[in-house]
Fold:
Amino acid sequence: MSPDKRTAVELADALAAGETTSVEITRAHLDRIAAVDGDIHAFLHVDAEGALRDAAASDARRVAGESRGVLDGVPIAVKDVMATRGLPTTCGSRILEGWIPPYDATVVAHLRRAGLPILGKTNMDEFAMGSSTEHSAYGPTHNPWDLDRIPGGSGGGSAAAVAAYEAPLAIGTDTGGSIRQPGAVTGTVGVKPTYGGVSRYGLVALANSLDQPGPVTRTVVDAALLHEVIGGHDPLDSTSIDQPVPALVEAARRGADGDLTGVRIGVVRELGGEGYQGGVLTRFEESVELMTKAGAEVVEVSCPHFVHALATYYLILPAEASSNLARFDAMRYGLRVTPDGDPSAEDVMRATREAGFGDEVKRRIMLGTYALSSGYYDAYYGQAQKVRTLVSRDFDAAFQDADVLVSPTAPTTAFKIGEKVDDPLAMYLNDLATIPANLSGVPGISVPSGLADEDGLPAGVQILAPAMADDRVYRVGAALETLLVREWGGRLLDQAPALPAVGDAETPEGVR
Amino acid sequence: MTATLLSYDDVLAQFDPALGLEVHVELNTATKMFCGCPTVFGAEPNTQTCPTCLGLPGSMPVVNAKAVESAIRIGLALNCQIAEWCRFARKNYFYPDMPKNFQTSQYDEPIAFDGYTEVEVDGELYRVGIERAHMEEDTGKSTHIGTTGRIHGADYSLVDYNRAGIPLIEIVTKPVLGTGAKAPEVARAYVAQLRELLLGLGVSDVRMEQGSLRCDVNLSLAPKGADRLGIRTETKNVNSLRSVERATRYEMQRHAAVLAEGGKVLQETRHWHEDTGITTSGREKSDAEDYRYFPEPDLVPVAPSRDWVEQLRAELPEPPHEKRARLQAEWGFSDLEMRDTAGAGALGLVAETIAAGASPQTARKWWLGELARRANESEIDLGSLGVAPADVARVQSLVDEGTLNDKLARQVFDGLLDGEGTPDEIVAARGLAIVSDEGALSAAVDHAIAAHPDVADKIRDGKVAAAGALIGAVMKEMRGQADANRVRELILEKLG
Ligand SMILES: [Zn+2]
Structure:
């Protein structure tokens, strides 16, 4: 049985035309999950029953003429960091094993309201700490392009699910690149919206001032459709922006004609060169070339403080995370480890946190606790906030000269599972290009730019725009996508190897 | 273990006290500080909770605008500056009754700062500087089940998160110097005045026994004339006006005893024990205690517009001292009467009793006499006695009508304190009304005259003052239910 490779737009059109039903589509994706997820491990929890029930309800609405919008009936996967009422939410951690939230994240509530059946929860690095999904307490996710390689992280599960046709759409969260970098290394599209553009209510916080949920899809216009469903002001999130979401689908459709006349594109000098894989840079340069041919005016911009972004990020993030994760103490929910003897509440807390958190989480809790300690606060956390302001000023200046900024999304293609897991600093470098956007809150998209010559693995181009100008990343992203698909004569994912399907070796696609 | 104490006179001979008060006030907003949960006191445990006040993963806070308004009004009433821009901060520490293991509070950017209020003790004004008033959330409430009732030695503990997230305002004074012997009274008068001010603002129920006003007393002693403050202790759990005064006095005497022996006061938290009237050592406060404060990233700064602040200022109720001057004039109280009334924390009660129809003097008489005595006996504040001003006014009107005399009125108060109903119901149920049956009264007078012929003779001889003995005998026979004036008239008629 072949996978359903249709995009969300194509599925929505088919539903609208009455050519298929949501139950049919949802069942096809559940079948695909059953067939390939043993190899991919994109999902931590699959809710077949709930998804099919929601699909049936969607079909009933459609028959009754009460459809709730374009994506009503199109199934979706949700990163396990978003609270889902009645569905397990582990954040990839042992410490939350068995926790079933009594409430929905606002993003999830939007999905339910818009009628998208939720297929399940996707794998991630524990509490979104990582760039490879290897730090999941439940085992790594494998890259559909090469099962020995990582799918990026922390949202490797969402990206892999979409790349492997297990879901047409997924929700990710991006704290330092966790949507965009997995997009780049799996040949999919990922968008980090403007900070405050999509509600964080119900997103189990990693670093509150950096986290942002966003779409994970196979095409730019699919991302725009999903973004319009989940975006907008939320009174439950004080940091949510009280302004209407720009017309994103319209911007993506406009960009899809491939014309970039009059658009000023800034190439960020500091995001390229040393430390970037040759093939990644070649694909990036080709993309810039294509955009120039399509009428864009390309300028080089300099953002001198971006070189400090990584260091800044690794002070702010652990500081906020160390405080956020304090609540996991076995007193109210999740794992509880009771030491022998007559343990006090503090003993239980200590034993539970020792057993429930992985090494990377413990590492960051210690870093953050240190950075916030009295006597060190000014030198670390305080200083980091100042650099953060300087990074934002760099963006402001760059956006004087350019409408959007571009760079490779990640410095390399997908590396081998296990290759960097014991080298935190090497792992952290994966987010070099994506972190500045989180520090200043600007929106960014990663669009596939092709396969690197060295290894034949996908690379991505990142397009950044000023805060609240998310429409620009969709317009330019869609234009680049159109230009590249023309070059390739099809989507990049069409070049991905077929996956072996469990008990389905006789499929027309054969065995890889 | 009881500490050694120095006599109060010796304390004052050698040392100058420095006083500091930290008061936590629970606001009476309808909903919590950062979520929409109700704040009703006494609900079933854990029924007034939601993902936010339970600190569930993913939940986020939203600031209660009404709480901000209350905080600003409190700040203005305490003559504070109001911040143009301030943030919440996380105070990080682990405790089972803290759902997030951090308290969302304010740190170096309080909403209100640098104010003062003036309190009067024995006709003298003391200026109490206000360091800051800041917003924060309350924690849950732990109940330790076991023989000790404390966390150590408990079999298990129960936590009620209904209280978690209730808005609190913490009001911190600057060190109050120069109060000398009056330090305990100044402490008490400050808290009493704060209560009055908060009641006037309508921002809190300020019921100390329910914990909606909690007071910590900081105290240090320095040798007389020294230019530095001594080492301070922070005494927690001082939850009545009376205790504020007692705890201050106790700590002064305890510190002095330590210092007089050449010892060093330990910088620590101490616990006040209302029953035994002593403080005991809590945890030691060391510099190692590090709350790792940082700005709460889930909240945006609070930036009250100047227009709003000025509007709130214009709408403030009359300040307590102005109100007191006005009331004194209206009620015709002497300075001493006014001071006693204020000192007893009875201004509001007296005002309400007058509003309910009693005369100022009778209102004062009941609250500062009979009712104050009973509050003292029970070691609680007048306001916590459970007698409503309207009930007091009704008792007085029954006296004025001649239905009750003072003695019977006291029995009505017994009934009120025992929760037997309204004054009228108690009079009926206990059969307390004065007997106005002239026949019965006349007979009782005749019995008294017959039983005390020598007294009767004295009265016949014009020694009218001796009538008291006969009145007493009549009242005894009538079991107090007679109008003493009428009895007197009858005696004088019969022996005149
Ligand atoms: Zn709540």
